[in-house]
Amino acid sequence: MKSDTWAPHVTVAAIVERDGRFLVIEEHTSAGLRINQPAGHLEAGETLIEAVIRETFEETAHRFEPEALVGAYMTHFARPERDVTYLRFTFCGRSAGVEAGRALDEGIVRAMWLTADELRASADRHRTPLVMKCVDDYLSGRRVPLDFIHTHSVAPVVRA
After folding, report:
1. Could you give the domains of the chain?
2. pLDDT tens-digit profile of 3-17?
3. 39, 56, 106, 128: which has the fewest C-beta neighbours closer than 10 Å?
4. CA distance 86 to 61
5. Dist. CA 37–CA 140, nearest whole Å
6. What pLDDT, on a 0 to 100 scale, did the predictor assign at position 83?
7. What pLDDT sits at residue 7?
């Protein structure tokens, strides 16, 4: 097996709308302060749905209840040290409450609610062009039922 095997980075993101406003985060990045949906990487052993629930809670303190998949998005970034590909699964759903006073993930400055127009006006501060693309897809009514996603669990291999 080659040590330089290519693999995409799998991420999840949440779209939460309430009264015409979207839950987003403001976070420190290498490019400065940026706006993003609550999002993050799939961790070993998680389902995509478990990952988006966890990431949304860690970044916003909101208990996310996914209702549908908005879309799957692939982005390639050419970087001097190595090209990177992200495969992002964006879910929409609702907040089932917030845990007031909960510390947010490192690097997250705050969670906030912005309208689609406010998000469009701040496009230069988006972490990725997918921020607005996912909101636009959501607003256009794009929804895929959650049972479209299947996770096949395999018993772990026991090694002596």
Report:
1. 9-145 (3.90.79.10)
2. 567 889 999 999 999
3. 106
4. 25
5. 18
6. 86
7. 86
**Site of tokens 């669990």:** 153
14-59 pLDDT per residue, tens: 999 999 999 999 999 988 999 999 999 999 999 999 999 999 999 9
pLDDT in tens, 101-150: 999 999 999 999 999 999 999 999 999 999 999 999 999 999 999 999 99
Among 89, 51, 56, smallest CA distance to 70 is for 89
Q: How far is CA 85 from the centre of its chain?
A: 15
- Looking at the DSSP bridge assignments, the partners of residue 27 are 34, 108
